[in-house]
User: What shape does this take?
Amino acid sequence: MCASVKYSIRGPALIPRMKIKHRIYYITLFSVVLLGLIATGVFQFWPHSIESSNDWSVEKRSVRDVPVVRLPADSPIPERGDLSCRMHTCFDVYRCGFNPKNKIKVFIYSLKKYVDDSGVPVSNTISREYNELLTAISDSDYYTDDINRACLFVPSIDVLNQNTLRIKETAQALAQLSRWDRGTNHLLFNMLPGGPPDYNTALDVPRDRALLAGGGFSTWTYRQGYDVSIPVYSLLSAEVDLPEKGPGPRRYFLLSSQMALHPEYREELGALQAKHGESVLVLDKCTNLSEDVLSFRKRCHKHQVFDYPQVLQEATFCVVLRGARLGQAVLSDVLRAGCIPVVIADSYILPFSEVLDWKRASVVVPEEKMADVYNILQSIPQKQIEEMQRQARWFWEAYFQSIKAIALATLQIINDRIYPYAAISYEEWNDPPTVKWGSVSNPLFLPLIPPQSQGFTAIVLTYDRVESLFRVITEVSKVPSLSKLLVVWNNQNKSPPEESLWPKIRVPLKVVRTAENKLSNRFFPYDEIETEAVLAIDDDIIMLTSDELQFGYEVWREFPDRLVGYPGRLHLWDHEMSKWKYESEWTNEVSMVLTGAAFYHKYFNYLYTYKMPGDIKNWVDAHMNCEDIAMNFLVANVTGKAVIKVTPRKKFKCPECTAIDGLSLDQTHMVERSECINKFASVFGTMPLKVVEHRADPVLYKDDFPEKLKSFPNIGSL
Amino acid sequence: MQSWRRKSLWLALLASWLLGLLGIFPLLRLAVPTGPRAGAPRGWPRWLDAELLQSSFQPGEPPEDAPPPPPAPRGGSCDWGACFDTSKCRSGGFKVFVYPAAGPPSETQHKILASLEGSRYHTVSPTEACLHLLSLDAPAGACGPLPPEWNRGKNHLVLRLHPASCSGTFPRGQAMVAEASPAGDAFRPGFDVALPPLPEAHPVRGGAPGRLRQHSPHPGEALLALAEEGGGWRMAGADSSACPRSGHCERDGGPEPTHPGAALPNATFCLIPGRRPDALRFLQALQAGCIPVLLSPRWELPFAEVIDWTKAAIVADERLPLQAVAALQEMPPTRVLALRQQTQFLWDTYFSSVDKVIRTTLEIIQDRILGVSARPLLMWNSPPGALLALPTFSTSPSHFPFYHLQRGSRPAGRFSALIRVGATGQPPLKLIRAVAGSHHCAQILVLWSNDKPPPSSWPETAVPLTVMEGHRKASDRFLPFRAISTDAILSLDAHSSLSTSEVDFAFGVWQSFPERMVGFQTWSHFWDEAQGGWGYTAERVNDFSMVLTSAAFYHRYYHTLFTHSLPAALRSRAEAAPGCADVLMNFLVAAATKLPPIKVPCGRRPAEAGPPQAPGGLGPAPQPAARDCIDQLAAGFGHMPLVSSRLRLDPVLFKDPVSVLRKKYRSLEKP
Assistant: This one.
């Protein structure tokens, strides 16, 4: 503005020859333009620069430069924690709302430095660990920078260690946060609660309804389903490089490595050592080390010096006793060493106990049983010990090893409470990767024999062999348990025959026309399938008798989670070529059944269409082959079970055909099928097929017994 | 001058145009809300001096002056370590003493006693007991006086199956309280036990089986059933408008079937409000196989200490019912399938009878006492459930026949032959040779159950042969002998005749079905209309439901289960009639697996070994002893566990028209 004024004063000198009238006009015009320009410039840049003083991401800053907030001595203090808080009473779930990703949104308040009236800081501005924790949250999927969309608020006020802060003033600082609202939906992280002399087991800072992720909760302070019990982070996790040591017998059976123990406990431990000798090792702080040695990395027994935490790897069980606080950082070190923690701290809520099954990784011994601890541990079989060692190490890797792991596990627990539909299962939390990899959770695990009255739906895949199709329909319709027949018409160039031409059968017959001639159409989960049992049958399988089909359905009822089929096949390992080979000869074993005639649960149609791993589905459609092998792989992989081949081998197609089963047995076919097996095995990353030596026959098959008294006499006749 | 004017006009135009152009940006900026700017997401800053920040923890953190151990538990609060004395349970095992009712026992107390008496926990001596059980279901609803051995409630379990009137005033002290759907604030986790809310007419034993008949929901099934005030259920389709925010769902105009008075809902999900009286609906949903969706329950879920309810139910927030409904509609079929099956498993295993509820309560307490040797949660949460998976057998799931799939393990590849020599008193030399010929045979155990002393010399076999003395009882063979070193047992009688080939094939089949019995000769059970009872016969040959243990493979765990889980009354019952021990073993395995046994072919026509047959007749002849046996066992189990099968597993090429040389088990085909 100043500039424009100056300009207008100089104006006349610059343009001397102009007429006054025009000159005035001209000058006015230019002033207006200039004024406008300047105003625009100011408008555009000024507010932005004001806003960006809050925006740190643009440049890197120092912690010392954060804004200072002065807390008046009489500013409000939150209520003490409400012990009756539960998610549905103290948590405002409306802030979280429906979310397609099922992820809560977490906001972090910007960092401030709080001082009291006289300018004395309330606490250290932020510790290294809390900075790490907030960075981890900020880098995670949970983070949002929009306070209005946030479901959970994390203050930047560091309360990890109660000893580093002033309780009343910290509480005042919390209360003046912009969305505090009695602490609703606020999450505080605290690892070292309480202070001398009585060491409370939860953070003493009044926090009203705020959730507390605390290390060292006891049953008296822990609000189950509301608070989250977290580990006390061990500094050694990052500082010391400790290569993993596998499970197995170790030099010491029981070891105690804690330094500051109550004399009573130390006495008890001493008694244990005296009683059991070499196998028990009780360590203490070293008294006569030279100054330059890191004393917290050494432990001593009499005059023997041990490296800590390396010594933990020498023991099978490690005592984790309560100290001044219930939560001890040594738990983390012990787990890391694959030493099974023996937790002796009555009423202690173990870290993440809401989701972690500590029985699998630790032994909890009541304090009054401490004298017995050796005998209790001795009763554990070696196999269980090794599993527990593995489990302990896995817990450390997944949930203890870094501040980030601790922060994310905490948020995941809260997330699962808010979106229970997408919650992580017990197995996902607790099973180590090796178990997850080897185990199978059968989707049809309930032992249940479906009632016969339900019947089955036959699905015939056809292209243009109408005559043969009609024969199949007529044959299948004789089966008593058939409840519906579905013809999948896979020919887009030709319409199915008129309705009047179809065979008249006693059950509903429905024709589905497909959009594309794809083999996977056979396994589509059509809405028309109302029964659980599906019979997939080719339009040329005309030789199966009604007895055979009915018997096949009965077998499926006993094995509803398996593929129950007629023609059986085998996969073999070709040692010369070092790859899998397809086998259709007369063998004593079977590992697949062809879906040209097979019963299975309709759920597998859903799996085939929507959950087939990798590109197998498209690959099958492109090659027009091996959809049956793919189905065998899929079912075996998800159930971990073998197929059931029913009834003896026979010619399933036209009896006149010379080749066995009528399938082309030429070399290229076999090579292609072998290729399929190799391709699928590589996509699944394993060979899921199971080989068995049995097939299912009716109880009296070929027994010396009057045929007319047999339930299924017409079986296996060629 | 005109040019001046024109020029200035042009200038003015240009200037205003420029002005407009520049002005529009700030206006645009104002119009768009301050969303996240692209390229610069604002996160937690990376501090320049992050490395210089101080740590929260000092390496030698624990203060030197550690405080004294904690004081004794504060007023009224108890936890397991502080308030239960396990030393009493170590010596004599887990024994439970039930206080007799003060007045005339109520019906519920009758049920409790009926359930406990004859069970392996029951004791009549209060001094021997590790746990004292006090039932508060008094007929008048009044609290009786405290029992003499009360001792401030230490090692006491106060059982309240139904809400009683004296609940408020009862001084629980250090006693554990097991009550139906307790409210969250009074409940002491890990100490008290949350029971399911049982209807008055809940059966003592057996109980109604789950109503689920198929694994996946029927396409026509309603998505939601809503618990109504009056005790009924109302079905609702996928239309979520039926449920406004209050959680009370109104009837929408559409045609939706209502089932007034229908006891069980017929839907995939059941929405249940969180108030305590509605807890009863929870059990109904479980029985119906309808996945319970609990809207902020104010009560503890039953047995939540051991049951992983996230596998069978969904706890949603009552404030967001629409979100719940939307999430249910979106739920992938795989999860629905798993939840649905789990509801049925839990109902059938832990909730369908008073007996199961009480045994589950006691097993939970026993697991607490066992501590390290308690069952892993896997055993509680997958079939057949903890009541049938005894922790005394092993704590490793892979030692049981049920969990191989979940653990990615396999049963060991060898078996032990257990040959019982009974009345004949002749060493079965031929049988021993045939069995020892199998490559899978690890050892042969001869159970000498005859008055004559066993011969001193036995044939030379490739595998170790051990002779054990029996007690000449039929159920001797089902004792959990320490000598058995393999998972699989081939149980044999001296008179059985088997070939090596048959043994090999049957063992191969057993490895595929380690939880079932695999046998050669079979019986089937039937309901005898004329007599109004169960019977069994060897004559109904098209199907079967039992295999004879005179030649059968099964898992050695069933010996432990037979000896330690069955009530003594049932076991002594099995001694009374010939063949009854066999029937009992089949009952037990069928109750655990809910599946039929497996029959494999035997080459020779088996010697008739069944319930004694009336000569000539094909139909089942009246056999009082046999029928009594199966009838009484069925009564003891509370239901008929046997399941029939119509199939036999044969070798793949069995009697196929192909060269015998190709066949692995050719000797099975000899007529």
In short: The longest helix of chain A spans residues 20-51. Chain A touches chain B through 172 residues (CB under 8 Å). The CA atoms of residues 255 and 318 of chain A lie 5 Å apart.
